[in-house]
Amino acid sequence: MAVRVKTTDPIWWGLFSAGGTLAAFLLPVHVIVTGVGIAFGWVSPQVLAYQRITALLENPLLQIYLFLLISLPLFHWAHRFRFVLMDLGLRSLKTPVAVLCYGVAMVGTLLAALLLFF
Amino acid sequence: MSTIKITVTRYNPETSSEPFTQSYTIPYKEDMVVLDALNYIKNHVDGTLTHRWSCRMGVCGSCGMMVNGDAKLTCATFLRDYYPGEVQVDPLAHFPVIRDLVIDMSDFMDKLLEIKPWIIRSEEKPLEEGEYLQSPDELNLYKQFSMCINCMICYSACPVYGHDQSFLGPAAIALAHRYNMDSRDEGQDQRAEIIGSHEGIWECTFVGECTRVCPEHVDPAAAIQRSKVQLTKEYFLSWMWPWGN
Ligand code: FES
Fold first, then answer.
1. Pocket of ligand 1 contains residue B60 by CB under 6 Å
2. Distance of alpha carbon B194 from alpha carbon B185, whole angstroms
């Protein structure tokens, strides 16, 4: 297939939209289970017991799931925040703002990878 | 007789370097639109007032102006929606003003040409082979986007275009999408270079004002998002499948 798009924009937009999908569909589930459910007693605190979670994290599928769940929404944030800063008038700092925003997402991604996989 | 106060932003580079406002109190009738008020002023009060219009029925797209801060077709905006309040008319936002309410549309015209808003064929079929047939379903894929009347109201509502005029903008992208979705067209490659460039679809932050203000109910925001999805998919596929079709 001929490459018709010659900028890197699809990479950032692709990460943004994938992250947005996860943030919209999966993050609320996690927030309800861990943030609200336990506090209100709908979910047993045992569910998040340290031993149980560390044992669960041995599973590579769960590792990948958590990695994507952490990394992609960070890129969603980075892209959105970058445009918010542009809209607030930082157009002259286009490149530094982009480096800063995506840089934070990359650092977060790297940390997630280190913690989960090593 | 009831009257209404119309305030107009005026600008004449031959006599002053700054724009100024001028108010006119004119007779009010319930069935008057903002354009009627401007024409009344021009014909009966102040012949120097300059504004664009043609069809007076929401078809030609030349009467777009800001009415009390909102981009509107003035021939389709009734005074009764503001009466007894006052009405303020300004030239379309985000465009250079030539005089009074007349804006310079050359930026939009250039962009429109760039996206090649016509059916492109790699090879025309000979006349004797007949017309290019299209099913109602194929027509429905692009029909709403073909309703654009080039009034530029979406440009004056778009904050991204307001910040950065290099952005290709809603109507041009909606029209590119209109031809890309047309089963008779084979020009997607040529348009992808323009809409897929950095100044094309990617600058849009999905504010959605273009769709809200469109007097013809076109949905440029959807055209932009669909183009983003399509070109992003294609971009990643071309990496994973470089030898593909
Ligand atoms: S005068 Fe033609 S659209 Fe208003």
1. yes
2. 16
